[in-house]
Amino acid sequence: MAAETKREQAAATIRAFLPADAAAVTEILKGSPEASQWTEWGFKELLGWRGVLALVSEDDRKVIGFIIGRQVGERPKS
Fold first, then answer.
1. Mind listing the pLDDT tens digit of every residue in the chain (78 residues)?
2. Euclidean distance between CA atoms 46 and 70, whole angstroms
3. Please, which residues have CB within 8 angstroms of residue 12's CB and are 6 or more apart in sequence?
4. Which of 51, 52, 53, 65 would be 57's cystine partner, CB 3.0–4.6 Å?
5. pTM surpassing 0.85?
């Protein structure tokens, strides 16, 4: 018989990464030494790059996670 694990449901919200979120995201990375270490300035800079999608998750108006993706190739011409 397999053990069942119950997870609490999170009431997190996913939204666009804003320049004001850079400090919170930098703090999150400090807790993950194996992750790439970007500076707060670097995060603000990348928000202006073309082809970047950056999102944060927040709970009770506190940033608790983030994800960043970037298009690196050219779009196929039709």
1. 566 777 676 679 999 999 999 999 999 999 888 888 889 999 999 999 999 999 999 999 999 999 999 988 877 777
2. 10
3. 57, 58, 59, 64, 65
4. 65
5. no
């298009």: which residue's tokens? 71
Residues composing the chain:
78
Measured between alpha carbons, how far is 30 from 11 in angstroms, rounded to an integer?
24
Distance (Å) of CA 15 to CA 54, 59, 61, 74: 9, 11, 11, 26
Interatomic CA distance for residues 43 and 58, integer angstroms: 17
Cβ atoms 56, 20 nearer than 8 A: no
Contact status, residue 35 vs residue 26, Cβ threshold 8 Å: no
Rounded CA-CA distance 54/22 in Å is 11
